[in-house]
Amino acid sequence: MALDFYAGCLGGCAGVLVGHPFDTVKVRLQTQDSKNKIYRGTFHCISTIIKQESYQGLYKGMSSPMAGLAAVNAIVFGVYGNLVRASTSDNLLLNQFLAGSTAGVVQSLVTSPMELAKTRMQLQGQENRLVRTAYWTRNSVTYKNPVDCLVKAFKMEGTRGLYRGLWCTILRDAPGFGVYFSSYEYLTSKVTKGNTLSLLSVGGLAGVISWIVIYPFDVIKSRLQVDGMDGKPRKYNNLFDCVRKSYKEEGLQVFTRGLNSTIIRAFPTNAATFAVFTWVFMIFESPSAPKISVEQAKGVLMLEKEMQNYA
């Protein structure tokens, strides 16, 4: 179990490193003002960030999911694994869904503040549409790091500010984890050969399916978490007000904004996670120890997918 945990952490870090630029793009597309758009789409957003903020702009806020990876890893493996083992139902897919959903609810309590810090840091600097200068770079940073972001959010709004968007995070992660686990279980049962390529493909496809199901909640979560950022007047009163105003101003398409970058991200992040996970086992696993199982791979792939809501 210890090797599972550490391999999962290292694999998750690799996935975060590979997938974070796409997460930054997703967040910026989700939260941009429809009446004053900065980005036309995924690749225009990437090129604009690189031009104005260098490649470092794509990795803003990455330290937040990196720092919380071990805690989320422990929660997910612990809650999910114990519930699956304790279940007495013969319906395997239902067990996977319920155990995954419960793990999603529990880990939301930890990841919600982490994602608030990540999301706000990812948006720093995007208002600069002119040539980047050293002076502008030094004086336009609101948050020095995720901890500084959380401290300032707490000073301005208290505990409520740290957990802004919590209900949306739960509404996203509970069904998201459930759909991911159950779809992964179903897809792996249809794969005749459990080789690396098959597992990567199934993990990526399961991630895409779960994101499509819960993506509108992720859009609303991002908008709520950056609402009132930098002391600006708040636009949304609550979750339902955010949904109503977003739909009124931009139509149904607002709830899928940034989905392309999320789908693109699913496969390379799963590949990086699984590769490092396997590499760690090859180095540290004793000859008498059991080989990597589909269940172990599934847990790590799921963890990485959810951490990049980073997911």
TrEMBL record:
InterPro entries: MCP (IPR002067), MCP_dom_sf (IPR023395), MCP_transmembrane (IPR018108), Mitochondrial_Carrier (IPR050567). It comes from the Eukaryota. GO terms for molecular function: high-affinity L-arginine transmembrane transporter activity. It is found in: Mitochondrion inner membrane. The keyword Nuclease does not apply. It catalyses: L-ornithine(in) + L-arginine(out) = L-ornithine(out) + L-arginine(in); N(omega)-methyl-L-arginine(in) + L-arginine(out) = N(omega)-methyl-L-arginine(out) + L-arginine(in); L-histidine(out) + L-arginine(in) = L-histidine(in) + L-arginine(out); L-lysine(out) + L-arginine(in) = L-lysine(in) + L-arginine(out). The keyword Transmembrane applies. PANTHER family: MITOCHONDRIAL BASIC AMINO ACIDS TRANSPORTER, MITOCHONDRIAL BASIC AMINO ACIDS TRANSPORTER-RELATED. Signal peptide: none annotated. One of its GO terms (biological process) is mitochondrial L-ornithine transmembrane transport. SUPFAM superfamilies: Mitochondrial carrier. Belongs to the mitochondrial carrier (TC 2.A.29) family. Its main location: mitochondrion. PROSITE patterns: SOLCAR. This is Mitochondrial basic amino acids transporter. Pfam families: Mito_carr. It is a multi-pass membrane protein. One of its GO terms (cellular component) is mitochondrial inner membrane. Solcar repeats lie at residues 2-86, 91-190, 194-283. The chain crosses the membrane at residues 197-217, 263-284. Keywords: Amino-acid transport, Membrane, Mitochondrion, Mitochondrion inner membrane, Repeat, Transmembrane, Transmembrane helix, Transport.
